[in-house]
Amino acid sequence: MIQSHIADRIKDKIRRIENGANDIYVVGPINLPVNLDGETKMFQWYSWLRKEAGEAKSAAQLVEDLNRFSYAEMQQSSVLVYGDFEHESDAVIRMHSICHTGDIFGSERCDCGYQLKQSMRMITEHGTGALFYLANHEGRGIGLFSKAIAYLLQEDGLDTVDANTELGFADDSRDYGEAIAVLKLLRSASVAIITNNPRKVEALRKAGMNIARRVPLWGNPSVYNEKYLQTKVNRSGHFGQESGSETVAR
To answer: Could you list the active site residues?
Structure first.
């Protein structure tokens, strides 16, 4: 069968993580040359897939499932790894929530697109690190269609927190459990996290990760995202621009 032929070629590139009620299958590394500011940087790309926990699936079964399930209708996350992420003593990471409007279209209603590119620059300049791209985090976890409706409410005067709660969602319903499980698969040593969000630091700390320090990431303010950025600090508890790099208590 063609699935068996493919499976023999990729079986060493698929790993399984037991993660409570689910199993996570990680595929990679895959060489991914990325054009960053006109210069090619070579990353190692991984993607992962969540399956209901049970008997471990073989590579052949996973390949067979590709045509049995419409994975294009589902969300899968991934991670870009740069340098010797497993062994280097000092590595930086970014847990980046997908933002269709900011990351792809360059919308200035938020700072997501800027943070995505800037964190990639910071990782390559540092020499080693990983950028986790979390595909089920759109709109702080409410999804793209819901986010579009929330945007309409924001145009009517609500801020990002009130728009989400008005629709019946939590201010921030994102979960980092799967990403943390993949991080633990790829690296056991401490990491520095690029974020302004204390909830990300706390999520990693509670999961047992050794967080050496937090690296702030502010920039790209405009008249279009001024209220959005203020709401992050004033209502969502994000660190402000005056907060510099800091060691995180273990």
So the answer is: 172, 174
